[in-house]
Amino acid sequence: MAAPSFIFSILLLLLQLLFASLPHHRTLTSAADGSWQLLQKSIGISAMHMQLLRNDRVIMFDRTDFGPSNLSLPTGKCRNDPTDTALQVDCTAHSVEYDVFANKFRALTVQTDVWCSSGAIMPNGNLFQTGGFNDGERRVRVFNPCRTCDWNEIPNGLTAKRWYASNHILPDGRQIIVGGRGQFNYEFIPKNIVANKINLPFLSETNDKGIENNLYPFVFLNVDGNLFIFANNRAILFDYVNNIVVKKYPMIPGGEPRSYPSTGSAVLLPLKNLKAAAIEAEVLVCGGAPKGSYLQSLKGTFVAALNTCARIKITDPNPEWVMETMPLARVMGDVILLPNGNVLLINGAGSGTAGWEQGRDPVLSPVLYQPNNNIGSRFEVQNPTTIPRMYHSTAALLRDGRVLVGGSNPHAFYNFTGVLFPTELSLEAFSPAYLDAKFDKLRPTIIAPKSMSGIRYRKKYTIQVVINSDKVDESSVSVTMFAPAFNTHSFSMNQRLLVLGNEKVTAVGNSMYNVEATTPKSGNLAPSGFYLLFVVHQGIPSKGIWVRWAAMELTKPTKLEFYDQMLKLQSKAILVHYFKGDDGRKALILDNTIFHPQGGGQPSDTGFICVTDSNLRFCVQDVRSKDGVVFHYGVAEDSSMENELEQGKGKEVILQVDESRRRLNSRLHSAGHLLDVCMRNVGVGHLEPGKGYHFPDGPFVEYKGTVPLNELQNKQREIEIEVNALISKGGKVYATVLPYQEAAELCGGSLPDYIHPVSGGYKAYFWTTFVSSTGNDWKSHGNSEFDTFRLLTVALFSRPVQGSNPRIIKLGDNPGCPCGGTHVSDISEILSMKVYIINLLHLKNDNLIDDPHVSECQI
């Protein structure tokens, strides 16, 4: 009986091996639709990161620190990087540009290590990619879409080291960068003028010690302008302007981790009913790995992936997660929005986690998720690929409706033999069922326009399409807009689909129809930039066309009359636009202004504006500037003035600045400049002035440098005596715009780095956000008590501008300095000044006794 027992044992072993080798797509007997096409057997690199650009080219890149790739750079071109950990002189490419419709690619040069980085498309269509590893961790890299363009790198473009972070475009056009390994904070690009590394405790709270499980957090812009941030197994709604957690969402039932390395994926489901007073937003989180899976995989035990999706209405007052079961368990999968509003789950593994060699059981079959169906009928398994897409695989929706798939390299180096899952250099395309030829008669073809630039919010547009069907269901025609995503590590950053629906479908000829649709009402729903617009008929989408939001309803900057006439309190201007913001605030935009917008540490002017020959006044409560355009925020004294302002473009208006507030602001700002003079006069001119805060609730100036601690009290007295002596002496205050060299000479021989000696000057664009701690407006004047205010000033960018020149403020015979604020006409008008305290902000080695120097002080 020994032999039969032996044969049975062998048979059982064979069966076990057979079933162990079957991937998690073995239910494919019920597979429905979709087809695969191999586009390129090898592009020379493994596509760890992927982004579709506005010219139908896809940028892909991999790490640089593993040695040579399989694609050479153009003849004679090499990357020289002495800090690279593998190859300091590298003549191979680690990034490519893929031309979708030509099915060709070309090598690009990325200089520093982009391993596990992040990015997003800026409103102008340029790809801003951020962070990475080693010498790349603080880099910002910019790619401008053109046939011959290559990467440009900005050293120290980031404030913090960013590795495994997530990016998102904001309504004002900036990118926010959230988290990263060891970074429990966020920052913006372009950088803030003020602190640009802001703590976010939620990230440390969701960090599992030794495992993390909160890298590449899922970040989505909610319809109210706040951010939904998911990490590990829970989420918050976050007000990034005020650094406030607005809401904490319940933990996903079961508490299993969904973030890297227990990598699930997530998506903001299509936004619908965009004209509703309260627009709903839902987030879907799918897959991941059970607790402990990461450590188990390091030991060679690969735990089955999670087979659940969790869905939540993030706009509900009392939101709850709704759990659904996927037909295939999946970790390291991608979730891609499709033009018809469905969702595709693709790539990934059936067991293990993210990490080198830590995944098993490739999931070869995509799954279609239909969010509008009832629970239990939403998932549909699609036809499989033959190529495993494991760790470091990517996917992106293309303009023709296909999904581009690439990458997969679960190894520390490129490894093509002797391993379970060789490094993948190929590109494939998955064609969802809607691309099947049997649906050609239902498929719309957009005839006009071929593209659109400068589309605006709340505007109706007409798209002309051809549908070669005898039975066009007008009620099933809709228009959708898709924001192309930056895809890496199972997360498509900035991915967004807007369902505009249709307001009217009109037959205008043989199989030709005009489809009318209205764009979303604000940048909270559709941040500015390039989108793909589709027309969908009975679930079958057209090919997309590229559309671009108008960056601004104005292109000309507001002329700042106070630059030359700081004492002018009344003037005339032309009304250019009556602006209604996403937050409900209203503003007047004029061709010129004497109102000083908040900036440079100085609060804004207040006052009123009235239409000539009218007794009605618009009370100006706050003034802000964006891209050189000044916004006068406030309220009309009478509701009847609303119509007058809305129809008043081109009318003359009269401006009146509040005199008491202007004088106080000017005194405080001039006092800050005079303090700089005194610092030099009392022997501490080596201290570098930093942030200035010229608000009535506690003005100060920060200085950086070293001063013996035992001299601080004496210096405080000396500074106060000197400053009041200068005030008593008086002296004319000059404000003038000068060519760069003259300005430098007037300022002691040099100008700050942010003013460029190119074309004679610079231009700084900035956006400011207004917050009152009391919720009140400025009410008092002169030396009375004021409400406490805090303002965040954000520099969008600073660059040379042809023909511009710096404005210099000069107090008496003292050296000048660049400044855009308002000032007194004579130093004596400051009246008096008292130095209350010198705060020590940081001490070397944090030791007062042993170290006799301070590195930064606040006066």
TrEMBL record:
This is Aldehyde oxidase GLOX. One of its GO terms (molecular function) is alanine-tRNA ligase activity. PROSITE patterns: AA_TRNA_LIGASE_II_ALA (PS50860). PANTHER family: OXIDASE, PUTATIVE, EXPRESSED-RELATED, SECRETED PROTEIN-RELATED. Residues 558-835 form the Alanyl-transfer RNA synthetases family profile domain. It holds the Pfam family GO-like_E_set. Residues 1-20 form the signal peptide. One of its GO terms (cellular component) is extracellular space. It comes from Gossypium anomalum. Keywords: Oxidoreductase, Secreted, Signal. It is found in: Secreted.
